């Protein structure tokens, strides 16, 4: 079968991988992906050929998967979280224009916005935005504009890629932009690190305090809307049932 | 154990339910939820007590679950999609302030934004907003403001609850607001109906055409950003790898 599954395996171990994702990997001849993700799953799928590439080789990985499928093999291209949220589904579909004989199927997974929110409580209970602070592939001006609009719309916000060695002050800058655009400094916020993996950590704080937090690239950040509250140590954005008498 | 799991079971059948969600249901004494969701899972968990309530009785269901847990039982409160996105995690945590002896654990699931995006391709590949058009619990002015800000920020947008019998023209109104706020009428859009269930359907169209679509409450709507394109019948928002030579 000339087919590539692009598979979201969720945040960490098996507990988060859907049966649909398992079935895709089981019927594949080859599993390919970033080394860390292949290491997470390879013992569960013995007998599969494995193909790993380092972090920055995303396009080469997609092309390799499509070439393998063009040769008649079934391939699963693995993504952490969801394949369709800052994952490989997009670039794979774009490159697949050069491989019209190859079918592409996107298999969704639990992205960090959902798994991290569950760890913190229910910060994304109502309308929300997901924004990546990485400017590797996006001009910073566009990121800044989106932060401003998210603040003006009073959305809850989930930030991906809040920091890296080269971008150590980006979260600080983002908090400043949000406050300048109207988010109150007292807005309840939180972060989760290593979601669903060993060493999972979480912390709640205000937006003003978030500005001084040191986070790494394995951290997902949550910023409340004007209605978000801390309840029993959890971050909760009400849906509006108060008017019905919670 | 005095515990309520609030469990996202994903969009439809077993294929989308994570092992973490299965484990929560298996260790529960009672499964409770909206009648339709209990019907989806009850045969897989024989011997569990079942408690179902109709659509509008969300708070009663949360309170019942907490009361059962306070009596020493372990309860799974089921939500379709994710428990934390327009689900029951929020109201349950809010009500749990009255039940300090009860532990609440949120178990994430595949929400329609992710499962629907996978059916259409990769429309949420880059920064996106999720907005519900239901004004049952949210003033329409707030929804309108969020639509405007989402358009101004050039986000991809996923709309939940795009229509109902009482709100037959809300999607039409939303499309008008988005175009007035700068979304091009040619923006690629799509919808998915009955995601992961029998009778799943999808359709692609422009934003101008979306304005005249008739959709129901089982439909999730996707609106592209300025970079979203149709590729081989799929809706794709590029991540920006073009500059690296896709």
What does this 3D model show about the protein?
The structure is a homodimer. The first copy, chain A, is of the alpha/beta class and about 250 residues long. Chain A is about 30% helix and about 25% strand. Chain A is built from eight helices and 13 strands. In chain A, the strands form three sheets. A five-stranded parallel beta sheet of chain A has the order 3-2-4-1-5, sandwiched between helices. In chain A, α2 links the parallel β2 and β3. In chain A, α6 packs across α7. Chain A is elongated, with a radius of gyration of 19 Å. Chain A starts with a strand and ends in a 10-residue tail after the last strand. The mean pLDDT of chain A is about 95. Chains A and B meet through α1, α4, β5, α5 and β6 of A and α1, α4, β5, α5 and β6 of B. β7 of chain A pairs antiparallel with β7 of chain B.
Question: Summary?
Answer:
The structure is a homodimer of 246-residue chains. Helix content of chain A is 29%, strand content 25%.
What secondary-structure arrangement, pairings included, does this model have?
Two copies of one chain form a homodimer.
Chain A: E1 3-8, H1 19-26, E2 30-34, H2 35-41, E3 49-53, H3 58-70, E4 74-79, H4 89-95, E5 103-107, H5 112-120, E6 121-122, E7 128-132, H6 140-152, E8 156-160, H7 170-180, E9 188-193, E10 201-206, H8 207-210, E11 219-223, E12 229-231, E13 234-236
List the quaternary state of the chains: homodimer
Sheet with most strands: strand arrangement of chain A: 3-2-4-1-5
Mean pLDDT of chain A: 94
Largest interface: A-B, 78 and 78 residues
Global shape of chain A? elongated
C-alpha Rg of chain A (nearest Å): 19 Å
Q: Main β-sheet of chain A, in a few words?
A: 5 strands, parallel
What's the helix-strand series of chain A? EHEHEHEHEHEEHEHEEHEEE
How many alpha or pi helices of chain A?
8
| Number of beta-strand segments of chain A | 13
Helix content of chain A: 25-40%
Secondary-structure class of chain A: alpha/beta
- Which regions of chain A contain 5 or more consecutive residues with pLDDT less than 50? none
Note the gap between the termini of chain A. 54 Å
């Amino acid at each position: 079968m000339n087919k590539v599954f692009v598979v979201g395996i969720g945040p960490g171990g098996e507990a988060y991988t859907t049966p649909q994702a398992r079935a895709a990997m089981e019927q594949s001849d080859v599993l390919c992906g970033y080394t860390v993700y292949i290491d997470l799953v390879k013992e569960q799928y013995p007998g599969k050929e494995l193909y790993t590439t380092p972090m920055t080789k995303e396009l080469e990985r997609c092309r390799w998967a499509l070439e393998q499928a063009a040769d008649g093999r079934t391939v699963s291209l693995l993504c952490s979280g969801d394949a369709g949220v800052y994952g490989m589904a997009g670039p794979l579909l774009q490159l697949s224009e050069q491989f019209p004989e190859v079918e592409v199927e996107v298999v969704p997974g639990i992205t960090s916005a959902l798994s991290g929110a569950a760890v913190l409580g229910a910060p994304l209970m109502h309308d929300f935005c997901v924004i990546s602070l990485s400017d590797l592939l996006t001009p910073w001006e566009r990121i800044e504009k989106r932060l401003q609009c998210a603040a003006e719309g009073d959305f809850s916000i989930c930030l991906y890629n809040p920091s890296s060695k080269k971008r150590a002050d980006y979260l600080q800058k983002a908090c400043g932009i949000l406050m300048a655009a109207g988010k109150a400094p007292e807005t309840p916020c939180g972060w989760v690190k290593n979601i669903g993996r060993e060493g999972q950590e979480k912390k709640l704080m205000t937006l003003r305090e978030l500005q001084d937090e040191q986070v790494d690239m394995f951290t997902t950040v949550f910023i409340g809307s004007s209605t978000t509250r801390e309840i029993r140590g959890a971050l909760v954005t009400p849906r509006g049932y108060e008017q019905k008498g919670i």
